[in-house]
Design goal:
This protein is of the alpha/beta class and 160 residues long. The chain has a single domain, classed as Glutaredoxin. 24% of the residues lie in helices and 19% in strands. A hairpin with a 5-residue loop joins strand 1 and strand 2. The longest helix has 16 residues. Belongs to the thioredoxin family.
């Protein structure tokens, strides 16, 4: 053990010990950059049900223009990431709304880790972000987790 020193207040202090290890910024749910991590939005830890039962579809950088901008019905796009806890909280709400408005509104999800071009082009700066499009134009945007009522009212507004 080293010698003690005196602080400016006159109290003794111990000499500095070895530096504590820095905490990792990568959480246990952080995405991996391999082909296995590019999964359906609900197959990446957001939902454990089989893919056949899903009411949300994937959209990618390659399919965004066709599925969103060229859609004949209003489209709700949820931007998410596997490591995002609020995204996991929002997912069941989007699933329920997608089921409720099936055929009148299309609900899609975009993995921002696997698809970086569209979020940048759309000005998405964080997840979760929800965009609502009508006739290829964005009419509403939400950032952060929202309540079912907030999202339902926004969807109802575009159906009027």
């Amino acid at each position: 053990m080293g010698t003690w020193s005196t602080t400016p207040t006159g109290r003794p202090s111990r000499p500095p010990g070895p530096a504590a290890p820095r905490p990792s910024t990568r959480s246990a749910g952080s995405p991996h950059r391999d082909s296995e991590s590019v999964q359906r939005c609900h197959g990446a830890g957001l939902d454990s049900r089989p893919v056949d039962n899903l009411t949300l579809d994937d959209v990618t950088d390659a399919t965004f223009a066709e599925l969103v901008l060229g859609a004949p019905v209003p489209v709700v796009v949820g931007y998410w990431a596997t490591w995002c806890s609020p995204c996991r909280q929002l997912q069941p709400i989007l699933e329920e709304l997608a089921s409720r408005y099936r055929g009148r509104v299309r609900f899609l999800c975009l993995d921002t880790d696997a698809n970086t071009v569209t979020p940048e082009a759309e000005g998405v700066r964080g997840v979760p972000t929800i965009q609502i499009f009508v006739d290829g134009l964005e009419v509403r945007r939400f950032q952060g987790a929202k309540t079912k009522l907030e999202l339902q009212e926004a969807v109802e507004a575009v159906l009027v």
